[in-house]
Every structure is written in structure tokens, then in C-alpha cells.
Amino acid sequence: MHMTGRQPDSATGTRTPRLVGTTAALGLVALLALIFTGLQPAAATSDSRLPSTASFRSGAALAGASYNNKLPYESGCGSGAYVITSKAIMGGTASMVYSPRCQTNWIEWWGPKRLIKKKMVPGFQDNAAGQTAWENDVATWSYSRMLYAPGNTKVTGSFYIFPGTQPTSSQWWQVRCGARCDWIHVN
């Protein structure tokens, strides 16, 4: 899937969402409410009966399997995600990505503008129940849909990488990840 709606920052060349104005406005509103109502912010406490903030998890991480077959960046799972394995293929880079926030995996392509077909499959068998829909894109960067896969859950990412923008002969690659990742050139 192409990334739309997030454009590179002209100064740094990075793709980052801009929420600074909204966050600053909300902070100002909260500060003004404290000043005009005479309320005091809650004091810090060391009461051991209260849970520490470290024990709380974001709602996104608790959603689990509801992220299956969703797009990662549109779902907010791209924030903090990282590549767990990658391979140079046909002049580009194919990667398996993991989101600690959502505990999901997906695959990505970076490279020459090509037709790329991508899907994720639970476990190590192609066409297993619970696989994602195919994502077919002609782009220099594209990604698949996600699968919920916490920890070392086994997942397979399948890529059909075409030499150009038309569905002609392709290379079929799979990346299988669990406790480790293996790349397989299927054809």
C-alpha cells in the first residue's frame, strides 16, 4: 500500500506526522483551566498500593487480533516499528517489520518502481487460514497488511516481485519468522 497523506519534511527529508499544534493547544487549555479554577495538579505519590505507570499499556497494544488484515500506517502501528530482517532483491530491499506498539508484523518493499504483490500468512504454510488480503502496488515503497504476532509467533511474508510495472514473470520470495527469520526464493 502506498503511503499517502504523509509527505517528506522538506528540511530533513523524513516522513513524520505533524501533531505539534494540536498538542500545544491542548496543553495550553489544560494550563489555563488550572490557573482560572484554582485547581492544583495531582501531587506525585510513592504509595506502593497504586500501580506504577509502567504497568499500563497503550490501548493499541491491547487490541491484539483486531489488527489482522489492517494497514499498518493507517492504523497507527508504524509508530516505533522496526525492521527485523531484510534482503536485497532485484535492485531493492524487501523487509519484515515488527510493531511493538501493536505486536504485529508486515512486509515492505523499498526500491525501483515495480509491481509488488504482498501478503502475510500465519505460521509457515502458504494459504493458511487467517492470511491477509493481497496488496498489489506499483510504487517505490509499499507494504502489506498486518498480522497480530506477539513475541516469536510464526508468520510468513510472501512477495511477488515483478521486473517492471506489469504482471509479467516474477520472482516469488518468502520470509518466515518465528524465533529467527529465513528467506526462501520459491521460484
What does this entry look like structurally?
Strand 2 (92-99) and strand 3 form a beta hairpin. It is globular, with a radius of gyration of 21 Å. The chain is 12% helix and 35% strand. It is mainly beta and 187 residues long.
Count of individual helical segments: 2
Average pLDDT: 74
Secondary-structure class: mainly beta
Alpha carbon gap, first and last residue: 24 Å
Helix and strand string, N-terminal first?
Answer: HHEEEEEEEE
> How much of the polypeptide forms β-strand, as a percent range?
25-35%
The low-pLDDT segments are: 1-62
The radius of gyration over CA amounts to: 21 Å
Share of helix, binned: 10-25%
Give the total of beta strands: 8
Shape: globular
The biggest sheet amounts to: 8 strands, antiparallel
Provide tags for this entry.
187 residues, 2 helices, 8-stranded antiparallel β-sheet, single chain
Layout of SSEs?
Elements: H1 20-37, H2 59-62, E1 82-89, E2 92-99, E3 104-122, E4 135-143, E5 147-148, E6 155-161, E7 171-177, E8 181-185
Antiparallel strand pairs: 1-2, 2-3, 3-4, 3-5, 3-6, 6-7, 7-8
Question: What's the gist of this structure?
Answer:
The protein is mainly beta and 187 residues long. It has two helices and eight strands, in the order ααββββββββ.
